[in-house]
Amino acid sequence: MSIWRVILSIIFPPLAVIDKGCGSFLITFILCFFGWVPGIIAALVILNNPNR
């Protein structure tokens, strides 16, 4: 995970996980819609997952 991904996940979380798949994008977008902080947390968790 690069520093640019971390910065992008703080500014606009769905855009940071767009290459991880449609499901990850939708989950992050919905969480970001309901609250900015849950979207950031979800994006960072998805980006830190070594299996994806």
TrEMBL record:
Alphabetically sorted, this entry's keywords are: Membrane, Transmembrane, Transmembrane helix
Q: What is its main location?
A: membrane
Coiled-coil stretches: none
Which GO cellular component term is one of those annotated? membrane
Q: Which Pfam families match?
A: Pmp3 (PF01679)
Keyword Transmembrane helix in the entry? The reply is yes
Q: Which InterPro entries match?
A: PMP3
Top-rank taxon of the source lineage equals Bacteria
Subcellular compartments: Membrane
Q: TM segments?
A: 25-47
Protein family per UniProt: Belongs to the UPF0057 (PMP3) family.
This chain's protein is named YqaE/Pmp3 family membrane protein
Organism listed in the record: Winogradskyella endarachnes
